[in-house]
Design a protein that fits this description.
This protein is mainly α and 101 residues long. The protein folds into 2 domains: 60 residues, Arc Repressor Mutant, subunit A, CATH 1.10.10; 38 residues, no CATH class. The chain is built from 6 helices and no strands. It is flat and about 50 Å long. The termini are far apart.
Length: 101
């Protein structure tokens, strides 16, 4: 059985993310094995997995809050630091809280 429609969260991933997921599955989820394959430390692989999880979770907020999703994506991709991202999101939510739209 093949997938006729690729889920939106998958379409947002780059080729490196997809490759990492494939290796992760083939390694039965062993981060130690993935670390050995990439020639990096376990914490490095754990960080990579955490960022991938964040990317997937961000997709869930895209429909309801596209601005917040953009800010989170920038932070996950290290284009914006997390403290600044938090401030921007808090201010956005304060301003839109009273907005009837």
């Amino acid at each position: 059985m093949s997938i006729d429609v690729v889920p939106e969260w998958m379409s947002e991933l780059d080729s490196e993310d997809v490759s990492f997921i494939k290796k992760f599955i083939l390694a039965s989820g062993s981060l130690k094995e993935i670390a050995a394959q990439y020639g990096v430390t376990y914490p490095t692989v754990r960080l990579r997995l955490d960022r991938l999880i964040q990317k997937i979770q961000i997709n869930d907020t895209t429909a309801s809050e596209p601005y917040v999703a953009l800010i989170k994506r920038l932070a996950v991709n290290e284009k914006l630091d997390f403290d600044t991202a938090k401030i921007l999101i808090q201010e956005y939510r304060k301003q839109t809280k009273g907005d009837p739209l």
